[in-house]
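Running co-folding for iron/sulfur cluster.
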Amino acid sequence: MTHVITGLCNRSGGCVRVCPVDCIVPGQPPEQWPYYYIDPDACIDCGACVDACPYNAIWPESTVPDFLKADIQANYDYFRLGPGYGGRRSNA
Ligand code: SF4
Ligand code: SF4
């Protein structure tokens, strides 16, 4: 299991500061990866980021509402196909 960030993300950045395993990164470039993303292989499901998000963008993967389910895969793709942690070098 993992938590995932959905399309409700507004790139406010608050979730990054509370993650105990530092597995949340801003998508880069934003035109291609418009949200923040959680590394599904590193997330320990502590839930701290959920309370830190003012937009209710973060959900446990198993409870993502239907209208946001299409956003789940982007979290996996960002780390397996996209820049992943390397995107931090051009942080925004
Ligand atoms: S706290 Fe919420 S809106 Fe802000 S970057 Fe994280 S997921 Fe996106
Ligand atoms: S659930 Fe915990 S470990 Fe997973 S991304 Fe959120 S703060 Fe990080």
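Result summary
Residues 5 and 58 are 5 Å apart (CA to CA).
Residues 3, 18-19, 21, 23-24, 38, 43-49 surround iron/sulfur cluster (ligand 2) (CB under 6 Å).
Job closed.
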